[in-house]
Amino acid sequence: MHKYEIILYWSEEDKFFVAEVPELPGCIAHGKSQEAALASAQDAVQLWIDTANEFGDAVPKPKGRRLMLA
Question: What is the pTM assigned to this prediction?
């Protein structure tokens, strides 16, 4: 399991839970339940990291703290 912050919210427009990983630009997943969205986000994080490594791009280390407050 990765330690990146994940922001989880309901999208009324899409009728899905959305899980965004703000430390990894463009890393977003969704699911019909909160649990499904979080599981998809973990898969998306691994794919993001694998792709960055494949292209020689830097992979940021997880900050391990809240990025912003609502």
Answer: 0.88
